[in-house]
Design goal:
Radius of gyration: 19 Å
CATH class of the largest domain: Alpha Beta
Distance between the termini: 44 Å
CATH topology of the largest domain: tt1808, chain A
Order of helices and strands: EHEEEHHEEEEEHEEEHHE
Number of domains: 2
Structural class: alpha+beta
Helix content: 25-40%
CATH architecture of the largest domain: Alpha-Beta Complex
Shape: globular
Number of strands: 13
């Protein structure tokens, strides 16, 4: 039976293979299960030419498997598995969650508003109709409002070698949600010599024609002189329904300096340092 190798090369933690090597779906499922159970650390597995439906088993909860964040694009028939995401992937959720807590502590958000802006990780987003029907993805973090079918903000973190795939996913989320997802955040980490890492955050949103655009780019590392706040252009009304007397166009306090704080801790836990 064909097997998949998840052994990272010296320069990459990403493997790309084709499902063409499998004649039947049970072979494919067994090979994936076996490799997931053997995973010892973070790896990104990209599987091309996956027939629709072959990936369904991965959305069923299995306690003996490691944490996986999944994306399936039925148009390209590409399945991507972010296996055992690490501190550096999860720091985006820490940053968003603590920023909400700080906003509450300063009075920027009141008790009622806190209940309208809810952070979650590892949540499956599925399109059941429209241009990107059957597209499914589990972003690293999101913010949602109760009773709404899609979140208002989604966030993805990855190494530079995965950037193009993540950008394509973000565009599909912004378009496929018909404007329900207002904000997309992409964080790209790049490894350099001596285990140093640089980082860039991009903010994406649809323009008036419904076309995704990168509207803001901020450097995380190397840290700009003086560790400036670098606020993001995200308004209250982008994240939740705003009631009077609040100003719906007031900037929400998501700042890069706080992401830099969480990222520095996460990088150190993984043996890296900021560039």
């Amino acid at each position: 039976m064909s097997t998949l190798s998840l052994i990272p090369s010296n320069v990459s933690s990403r493997t790309v293979v084709s499902a063409d090597r499998f004649e039947i779906q049970p072979q494919f499922e067994e090979a994936i299960h076996n490799n997931l159970r053997e995973a010892k650390g973070f790896h990104e597995l990209v599987i091309t030419n996956v027939p629709p439906g072959w990936e369904d088993f991965l959305w069923e909860v299995e306690e003996d498997l490691p944490t996986i964040r999944k994306t399936y694009n039925p148009e390209s028939r590409c399945l991507r598995l972010k296996i055992m995401p690490t501190y550096i992937h999860n720091c985006i959720f820490e940053w968003i969650s603590t920023s909400i807590s700080r906003a509450s502590g300063t009075g920027f958000l009141n008790a009622a508003e806190i209940g309208l802006i809810l952070p979650q990780p590892d949540t499956t987003l599925s399109f059941t109709n429209g241009l990107y029907r059957s597209f499914r993805k589990e972003p690293d973090a999101l913010l949602h409002t109760p009773s709404q079918p899609f979140p208002n903000l989604v966030a993805e973190v990855g190494w530079s070698e995965s950037y193009n795939d993540q950008l394509d996913d973000m565009n599909r989320l912004l378009i496929g949600s018909n404007g329900a997802i207002k904000i997309g955040i992409l964080v790209k980490w790049t490894k350099h010599a001596n285990n140093s890492v640089s980082g860039v955050l991009e903010l994406h949103r649809n323009d008036r024609q419904g076309t995704p655009r990168c509207t803001q780019t901020e450097i995380i590392f190397p840290m700009p002189a003086g560790d400036p706040p670098q606020p993001l252009d995200i308004r209250r009304c982008d994240l939740y329904p705003v009631q009077s007397p609040r100003n719906p166009n007031e900037n929400f306090p998501l700042v890069i300096s706080r992401l830099r704080y969480h990222s520095r801790i996460s990088l150190a836990k993984e043996g890296y340092e900021p560039a």
